[in-house]
Each structure stands twice: as structure tokens, then as C-alpha cells.
Amino acid sequence: MTARDRYDVSLHLLDRQIVGADDRLVAKVDDVELTRLSDGRLVPTALLVGLPALLPRLSGVLARMHRLTRAAAADRDLPLVADLGLVDEVGSGVRLNVAHARLPRMERARAEDPQRIRVGDVLGIPVRCAELPCRSKVLDLCVVGVPGRAGRDAPHEVVALIVGPGRPGALLGYDRRSEPGPAVVAGIVRWLHRHARVVDLGPGVVLDVDAGEVRIDPGTSLLPLRG
């Protein structure tokens, strides 16, 4: 597995354009669905599209307006769905393996499945850890694997969280893939990321979406954010 078989969801998927196999623009990625398997692993299962996916990710007035209007538009409050099996490649955008793609609207039973959450439900929630700055939050989610290959020749699952002070979307991606670039620039990026840490999901780490927090036990490994 290479460095490019590991990616960060917010940095490398959110807000990317989705194009079909015929190179026509389909939509953009407004959120990503995650599913918790019976063995506890958290796997990306779909790209979510449309205002019902985007607005809950936003803080402030827009998110509150979305919550207030959901009941009045119950038939339109669910996002469109592009299952990851349709994804052929992820680069500067997301390319599907079908042409003339018309994305279906999410079924309500799927939306209400307690084992399914959204990346937007995780980004920005507080992190409780005595060894981190008190205002630390979840800044991104690290995934091993390549979208579209899950279940074929490689795993595809969330393996770690990027945590620290600041806000989701503010981290730079310069040193988070395999391109080293000029040492001076890489050094500046490392300095900007100096408080961010990567914590592997596993013993000592509880991602409690219902409570809206992550709890990290003392002594759990917290690695600096590097490429």
C-alpha cells in the first residue's frame, strides 16, 4: 500500500466535483456517508450530494435554517447518493464508472439507520483528552484504501482521526501526501500544524457521535501530523 492509498476525507473528498464516465459534471461531494460494521470498523459507503447534505455541515444560521425547514419539506430533506461502488477514480475530482449518472435520493430507512453516520457529524466535535489543548476538535478523518475498491483487492476504512485546535477545513494538505516539496515550505506547514495530532482508532479512543464528542484515554499514542 502506498501513501496514495491513504487519504483524509475532508481534504481529499469534500467539495470535490463529481464527473461521470462521459466527463459530464454530475454534482459535487457535499458529505460522505460512513457505516459502522458489526466488528466495529467504520467504512465510507457513499458520497452525499445536495443541500440536505451540505447545510448540516455548516455552522450558524444556515444549519439552524435547515433544521427548521426539514419538517416542512420532508420529501426533499434527504440527499442524493452516489454509492462508492460507482467511483472509478479520485484525483482533483471524483470520476464515476458510469455515464449519464442520475443519482437516486437516499431512502428514509437508510437515513435513519443508526449504524450510518456522516463525516459532517464527526468533523468539529470536541475531543476530550488531558494531553491535548482544551479546545481540540476532530479536524479530519484518515482512511486507508481507495474509493471504489472496497471488497475487491484492498480494505477501505477509517483508521485514525486528526485532532487539535482550530476548525475543520483549515489544515493544509501540503505535507499529507507523498510529494515532499521545498523544505522551507514543508517546514512552515509543519509549524502551522504543530498542535495537530493523529490518533488511531482502537483501544483508548471512543468516537461517540450521539454524545457529540471523542474521548481519548491518557497514554494513548498521539502522533504529530506529517505526510
TrEMBL record:
Taxonomic superkingdom: Bacteria
Name under which the protein is recorded: Uncharacterized protein
Species assigned in the record: Nocardioides simplex (Arthrobacter simplex)
